[in-house]
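User: tokens in, sequence out, please.
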């Protein structure tokens, strides 16, 4: 099945006509105080996007008079909590974060999202500029004509690498996936105290990074309605990714997701870290890595360069008793003003951009690495695909089988032929049930 391409013409940072006071957002016929005194509950994923938004939650309450109750968890715990609430059709959660590329089809089929189309048509302030949101990411959150969420950011896995270690070990920046393995091998011999290469190894989380390997190496998840992991390209990608983590990754890498990767790299204990562009603020926290890091898309493979490009969205539970107040939170969090502020904290906003805001340009110019980050994100926006896991309703379950295949090879529990065969059989059964 063809990948859903993301083409965000003109870059990814908002064209920013910013208001200087909260009151300036008050448009004729639209009252930000219409739901003053109500309380809404936000189930948040404890990642950089949510953390950045919540730094400004007092501004939301000051603008609207709506109280925000926040329940925040690490990603896996957040998902478990969310499934419990949604399966129970409970009104405990009004607003939650969602990845359309992961659970969008599944949650839409289950009827768990509120259709945002009527809100977008009939209840927006004049300065919201819905059409300014990146069309590709808006479309990625639309299923069977239902608008399930509004994009919060644009992101994808990118390669962070230590320029000082590369120089010390006489390693050239990798231009191909094969070069990553060669570089890791040299670094391991040069400095045994450093983890040469780190990426996600946690079973349900690793498809986010593995998918970029698969596509760059010419593979695809499905062909002619069947799972395609045992294609030559699929097996090559499984082997390459698993071998990098097995031979050059950190101990316990099967438990690694974004949090562990960020901590390892920020502490100076990994030479290459293939992880989310979204982690840029956290990776750079404290400033230790600002002067010894470079950022690039994953180097090409036999299939060229096809980066993974997705975005988190904000949505309203179908079971919320406060949908109108919840919509005000969505509108505020995804507004040009808020996304301009988030851009200055390293959260790439999903609004088409001329990148001409003086504050943002000055922020980029303060650090050459920020400019590299921006350039890398521009490349992701132009050439990326949102296909992470199988493009089916049961996408989240499909990721478990992908992760299991990689981890079996990594841990020496199966060779690539055995692992991909077991995965293909399980995935074909999953596809057949759609």
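Assistant: Sequence out:
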């Amino acid at each position: 099945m063809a990948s859903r391409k993301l083409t965000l013409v003109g870059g990814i940072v908002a064209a920013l006509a910013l208001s200087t006071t909260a009151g300036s957002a008050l448009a004729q016929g639209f009252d930000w105080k219409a739901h003053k005194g109500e309380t809404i509950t936000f189930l948040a994923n404890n990642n950089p996007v949510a953390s950045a938004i919540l730094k400004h939650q007092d501004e939301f309450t000051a603008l609207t008079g709506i109280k925000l109750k926040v329940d925040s968890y690490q990603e896996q715990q957040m998902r478990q909590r969310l499934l419990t609430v949604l399966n129970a059709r409970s009104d405990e959660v009004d607003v939650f974060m969602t990845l359309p590329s992961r659970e969008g089809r599944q949650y839409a089929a289950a009827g768990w999202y509120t259709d945002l189309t009527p809100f977008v048509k009939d209840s927006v302030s004049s300065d919201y500029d819905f059409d300014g949101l990146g069309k590709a990411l808006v479309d990625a959150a639309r299923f069977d004509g239902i608008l399930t969420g509004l994009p919060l950011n644009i992101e994808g896995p990118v390669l962070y690498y230590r320029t000082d270690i590369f120089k010390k070990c006489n390693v050239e920046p990798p231009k191909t996936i094969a070069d990553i393995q060669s570089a890791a091998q040299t670094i391991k011999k040069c400095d045994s105290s450093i983890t040469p290469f780190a990426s996600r190894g946690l079973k349900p989380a690793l498809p986010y990074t593995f998918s970029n390997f698969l596509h760059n190496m010419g593979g695809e998840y499905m062909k002619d309605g069947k799972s395609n992991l045992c294609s030559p390209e699929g097996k090559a990608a499984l082997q390459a990714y698993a071998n990098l983590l097995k031979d050059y990754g950190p101990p316990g890498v099967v438990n690694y997701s974004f949090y562990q990767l960020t901590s390892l790299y920020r502490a100076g204990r990994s030479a290459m870290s293939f992880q989310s562009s979204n982690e840029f603020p956290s990776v750079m926290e404290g400033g230790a890595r600002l002067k010894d890091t470079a950022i690039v898309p994953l180097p090409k493979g036999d299939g060229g360069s096809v980066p993974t490009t997705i975005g988190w969205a904000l949505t309203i539970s179908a079971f919320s008793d406060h949908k109108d107040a919840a919509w005000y939170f969505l509108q505020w969090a995804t507004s040009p003003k808020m996304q301009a502020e988030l851009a200055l904290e390293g959260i790439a906003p999903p609004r088409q951009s001329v990148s001409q805001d003086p504050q943002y340009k000055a922020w980029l110019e303060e650090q050459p690495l920020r400019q590299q980050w921006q350039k890398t994100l521009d490349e992701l926006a132009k050439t990326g695909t949102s296909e992470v896991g199988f493009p089916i309703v049961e996408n989240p379950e499909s990721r478990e089988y992908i992760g299991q295949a990689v981890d079996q090879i990594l841990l020496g529990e199966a060779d690539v032929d055995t692992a991909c065969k077991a995965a293909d059989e399980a995935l074909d059964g999953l596809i057949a049930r759609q």
